């Protein structure tokens, strides 16, 4: 079992272990207060960046290092010991062990300052343990944080957001299941020099003042830079996370990823090569959606490529991008355990002008369902110089669709492909619906199709009266071996009626 699959199973177990607030018993012990402010956290990150990077040290006893996945999953935080267990939000903590070897410091922030939350084995239920928790002493700490809220039912606290592993975090809207995840930062992703994984080393949880929002701050560190983060989490049908970032570089950072998203695409209707599976599709996200600075909507269906694929969508001041799970029908997945139809989409809404750069899409080959193989993020055109400061902000929507954005364009409902009529041709079948797209067969709808190379043949556009959608069919006769970029959108005279479907085909 890999780290990603294990983490999702661990988080899913936390979702199932909801609890009704009751009598409080053991509570985390807190240190004496120290002054805290966002400005002070930023100043600390700046000072940290002025010194050489010190790798984190693991304090993990061998007994926890050697835990099996089953043994680690058997360790649960006691719900009655949750921080603020009787309030609208509560906080629980992950135990160190197995994959999670490095401790993080956690503080409660209130009017009198920040108080560190001390680890105590009495806060955890160790299940069918094969060791004596009392032997752990104070050498062990927390591995991460999870927040609960009355998200789905008024009398039950369900898991809302979790921070676990490097700078990863995940959140849920109402009646969703964990899938796509976010990171604080991506450095060197899919680069020749190798990827660097910044990590959150400290968390500061503001004591909630009402049921509408929760604020958590974090200190980040890595070989190349440090950072101070503030997250404001607002739960709902779509849960919103406002992210404010201050970065301080130790050295020049050329391959940086802002607002990185990570997901999984194993196979779908457009990509089923070498698949022998009873399920029609398996993925946490099925496409990258972009709203460019110029107002154009783009839809790029995801693939599980035969070799590493990196795509760049150059832009200036993008209005949004996200890894979306567009298909919400159970029949598309037929999986009673995974319920891929309930996985959230993640949409990044930049705050302020991000300037020139590009939205990067990295698609990594995988032969197993358990692997995260999709990454998307914003890369500024200009590298971050050494000893510099960069500040930015964005709003992250954990949602089903971008109904919060004015969108009059028809969407791509499905992308299918198969063998064409010629020996080396490829047939594509696209379905569009929604927006202002007419639902009458005699409407003068035209498909504007283009290819970077090769020849397009047998293009047709017709109304599907069964699905009340429009279907575009065409064949590509490729030339050469380099990837071919395809584009298609629907028009009615001079009016554009749909988003632009864009696809990369490799023979």
Explain the overall architecture:
This protein is mainly beta. The protein has two domains: 3-399, Distorted Sandwich (Beta-galactosidase, Chain A, domain 5); 411-505, Sandwich (Immunoglobulin-like), CATH 2.60.40. It is 7% helix and 43% strand. The chain has four helices and 33 strands. The strands form five sheets. The protein has a 15-stranded mixed beta sheet that branches. The two termini are 33 Å apart.
Summarize the structure.
This protein is mainly beta and 507 residues long.
- H/I helix tally: 4
* N-to-C CA distance: 33 Å
What percentage of the residues does DSSP assign to strands (E)?
A: 35-45%
Q: What's the overall geometry?
A: globular
- Structural class category: mainly beta
> How can the largest sheet be summarized?
15 strands, mixed
Count of β-strands = 33
CATH architecture of the largest domain: Distorted Sandwich
Rg, rounded, reads 24 Å
Would you give the CATH topology of the largest domain?
Answer: Beta-galactosidase, Chain A, domain 5
Mean pLDDT: 93
Contiguous low-pLDDT stretches (5 residues minimum) are: 15-24
User: Any idea how many domains?
Assistant: 2
Secondary-structure topology with pairs:
Elements lengths: L2 H14 L21 H12 L12 H4 L3 H5 L2 E2 L11 E7 L9 E6 L2 E4 L7 E2 L16 E12 L2 E9 L3 E4 L9 E3 L2 E2 L11 E8 L7 E8 L3 E10 L4 E11 L6 E8 L1 E3 L14 E2 L3 E5 L5 E5 L7 E8 L3 E5 L20 E7 L4 E8 L10 E7 L8 E11 L11 E9 L6 E8 L12 E6 L3 E10 L4 E9 L6 E9 L2 E2 L3 E6 L2
Parallel strand pairs: 3-11, 19-33
Antiparallel strand pairs: 1-5, 2-6, 3-4, 6-7, 7-8, 8-9, 9-15, 10-15, 11-12, 12-13, 13-14, 14-25, 15-24, 16-17, 18-19, 18-21, 20-23, 21-22, 22-25, 23-24, 26-27, 27-30, 28-31, 29-30, 31-32, 31-33
């Amino acid at each position: 079992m890999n780290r990603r699959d294990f983490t999702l199973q661990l988080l899913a177990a936390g979702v199932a272990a909801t609890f009704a607030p009751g009598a409080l018993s053991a509570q985390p012990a807190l240190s004496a207060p120290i002054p805290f402010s966002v400005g002070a956290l930023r100043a600390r990150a700046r000072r940290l960046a002025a010194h050489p990077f010190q790798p984190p040290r693991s304090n993990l006893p061998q007994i926890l290092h050697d835990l099996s996945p089953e043994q680690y999953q058997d360790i649960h935080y006691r719900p009655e010991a949750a921080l603020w267990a009787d309030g609208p939000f509560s906080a629980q903590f992950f135990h160190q062990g197995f994959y999670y070897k490095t401790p993080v410091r956690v503080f409660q922030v209130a009017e009198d300052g920040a108080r560190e939350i001390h680890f105590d084995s009495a806060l955890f239920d160790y299940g069918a343990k094969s060791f004596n928790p009392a032997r752990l002493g104070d050498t062990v700490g927390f591995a991460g944080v999870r927040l609960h809220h009355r998200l789905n039912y008024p009398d039950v606290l369900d898991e809302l957001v979790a921070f676990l592993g490097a700078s990863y975090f995940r959140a849920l809207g109402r009646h969703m299941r964990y899938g796509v995840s976010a990171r604080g930062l991506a450095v060197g992703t899919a680069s020749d020099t190798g990827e660097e994984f910044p990590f959150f080393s400290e968390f500061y949880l503001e004591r909630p003042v009402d049921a509408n929002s929760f604020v958590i701050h974090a200190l980040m560190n890595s070989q190349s830079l440090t950072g101070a983060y503030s997250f404001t989490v607002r739960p709902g049908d779509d849960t919103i996370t406002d992210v404010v970032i201050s970065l301080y570089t130790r050295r020049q950072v050329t391959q940086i990823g802002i607002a990185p998203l990570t997901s999984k695409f194993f196979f779908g209707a457009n990509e089923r090569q070498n698949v022998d599976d009873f399920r029609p599709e398996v993925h946490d996200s099925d496409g990258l959606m972009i709203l460019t600075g110029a107002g154009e909507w783009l839809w790029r269906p995801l693939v599980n490529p035969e070799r590493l694929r990196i795509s760049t969508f150059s832009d200036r001041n993008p209005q949004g991008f996200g890894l979306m799970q567009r298909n919400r029908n159970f029949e598309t997945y037929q999986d009673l355990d995974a319920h891929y139809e309930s996985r959230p989409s993640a949409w990044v809404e930049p705050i302020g002008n991000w300037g020139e750069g590009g939205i990067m899409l990295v698609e990594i080959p995988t032969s197993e369902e358990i692997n995260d193989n999709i990454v998307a993020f914003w890369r500024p055109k200009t590298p971050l110089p050494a000893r510099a400061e960069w500040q930015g902000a964005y709003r992250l929507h954990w949602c089903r669709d971008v109904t919060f954005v004015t969108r009059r364009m028809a969407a791509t409902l499905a992308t299918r492909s198969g063998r064409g009529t010629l020996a080396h041709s490829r047939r594509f079948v696209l379905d569009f619906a929604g927006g202002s797209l007419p639902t009458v067969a005699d409407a003068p709808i035209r498909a504007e199709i283009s290819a970077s190379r090769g020849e397009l043949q047998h293009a047709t556009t017709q109304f599907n009266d069964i699905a009340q959608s429009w279907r575009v069919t065409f064949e590509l006769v490729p030339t050469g071996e380099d990837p071919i970029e395809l584009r298609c959108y629907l028009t009615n005279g001079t009016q554009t009626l749909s988003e632009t479907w864009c696809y990369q085909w490799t023979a």
